[in-house]
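ok here's DNA mismatch repair protein MutL, seq below lol
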Amino acid sequence: DHVANQIAAGEVVQRPASVVKELLENSIDANATDIKLIIKDAGKTLVQVIDDGKGMSVTDARLSFERHATSKIRNAEDLFQLNTKGFRGEALASIAAIAHVELKTKKEEEELGTAIEIEGSKVVSQEVSVTPSGTSVAVKNLFFNIPARRNFLKSDTVELRHITDEFHRVALAHPNISFTFYHNGGELFNLPQENYRQRIVHVFGSKTNERLVPVEESTEVLKIKGFVGKPEFSKKTKSEQFFFVNNRFIKSPYLNHAVKAAFEGLIKDGYHPSYFLNLTVDPKTIDINIHPTKTEIKFDDEHTLYAILRSSIKHSLGQFNI
Ligand code: ADP
Ligand code: MG
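and the structure came out like this:
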């Protein structure tokens, strides 16, 4: 039902960057190894994601736009073992309610693929299509049927910054995937498959290399792998602060505080440390289902995580005589 989809869309899709996030995550869930992001006018007229992932059968392609049609959860057990980004099955249905969507998809083992066009939840065409293995989703004219939301969008500069932030998060979480990113025909990023350090340097520039201090820790409840920036390179903005928990970007004021505590006395007031930290915890000990856009998370034992994080960063800085 179109109304329910539009309401859900209000929660899932705030701006073009929300579409970028959902489409990129779907490609990752489909085990893509190469992902292209193509946008026009800061995503206001086009957001397209093309992947080489597992693709969809004709039935799955049609089903993917039904609300709560997720292929990723079969029972309540799965909710606690979640390895995929998506699980609500509402992103594509929500997006299709408020935009023109063109899906092309093909499974590797099939000869021909499927092309579907949807406008405001209505299927306007479905055809057999000659298309490469994988999936392309093009989202055009976002909010075409909700002028108030469309008018509320910020300037292209601001919307592009939100998109770039999402792209950074996904690209950093998946250095083993190659990404390209085009805006209005110009290439903004071209990232090959690489290791984590190379990915950070590729995204933030070659000068980043000399300022990274590795952080590694492995305890029963928490594994940490990543880098912090040397204190003298700390920033006036928080643009280089990344936590990934089980490969998912999250915001955590509490864990951010643990990093700041590790840098205590080393950084001037008003400056912020850079960090790129991958945390691995048992999925049973976290709850990621507290917000539809899924950047917030609840840990069972956050005090312990805080203590481990703070001490392992201090230890790493100490090894570099910082
Ligand atoms: P969710 O990701 O929460 O399952 P979505 O609405 O984002 O919900 O996607 C619905 C379904 O469509 C997914 O469960 C998946 O089966 C299919 N799907 C979406 N995007 C892709 C893709 N790029 N490749 C393969 N399957 C996809
Ligand atoms: Mg999804």
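fwiw The two ends are 59 Å apart (CA to CA). kinda neat tbh
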